[in-house]
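Reopening this one. Same input as before:
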Amino acid sequence: MLELVASKDKHAYKAFEGTRGEARPMVDLRLSNTLSWALTYAHLRVTRFSLPDDAPHTLTLFHAVGTATITGRNLHELKDKLAGYAVSWVQVFDPITHAAPDEAAPVVTGLDFAPTEAQTGT
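Same output, byte for byte:
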């Protein structure tokens, strides 16, 4: 049974942790409270950014071990930090455990990772 958390018990939400110009060796993609993928920046092959003004933002990271897709709103700063290898982690917003962020704050509404066949064993 799903138990809702009272709003006073919710944690403040932060979409990502970025550094100030300091490159990181990897980024941790926190898909949920129990699943994450740590990707090395050294094996990041291509990134694609779609940041329209009137639609959800999409950041796609093509990595040697799979493809990560990040969707949300106000993701310009995340894009800039990812391009500079300066993001430690990214997490999806969970309305059950996180307090609602400000309208202007970055919010990750979707975070998916599709591993390559070599990673899944298929």
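So the earlier flakiness isn't reproducible anymore. For the record, Residues 76-83 form the longest helix (8 residues).
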